[in-house]
């Protein structure tokens, strides 16, 4: 049962990621950062929508580490975007 739920989680994440890539291609906005952010949003949504009520399987106990790694990556992407917006005099590089 746990393996079935885990595979269902992975399938939903893959569907979300492929759908996000398709939408980004349609709107001509495909970039690595956009795919990463859309995938992270999907991970957060799917994690919350598939959360069990009573007993948490052991494989779900590792999901917070994946979410934390994704949020650190999100902070890096936002930091790079902010540095690209600032004038070179303010960056000091």
UniProtKB/TrEMBL annotation:
Domain of life: Archaea
Residue ranges crossing the lipid bilayer per the database entry: 9-27, 33-51, 63-83
Keyword annotations: Membrane, Transmembrane, Transmembrane helix
InterPro entries per UniProt: DUF8044
Pfam families xrefs: DUF8044
Protein name (Swiss-Prot/TrEMBL): Uncharacterized protein
Provenance organism: Natronolimnobius baerhuensis
């Amino acid at each position: 049962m746990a393996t079935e739920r885990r595979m269902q989680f992975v399938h939903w994440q893959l569907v979300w990621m492929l759908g996000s890539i398709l939408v980004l291609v349609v709107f001509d906005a495909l970039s690595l950062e956009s795919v990463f952010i859309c995938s992270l949003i999907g991970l957060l949504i799917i994690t919350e929508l598939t959360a069990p009520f009573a007993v948490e399987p052991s494989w779900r106990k590792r999901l917070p580490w994946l979410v934390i790694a994704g949020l650190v990556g999100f902070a890096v992407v936002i930091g790079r975007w902010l540095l690209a917006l600032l004038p070179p005099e303010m960056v000091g590089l």
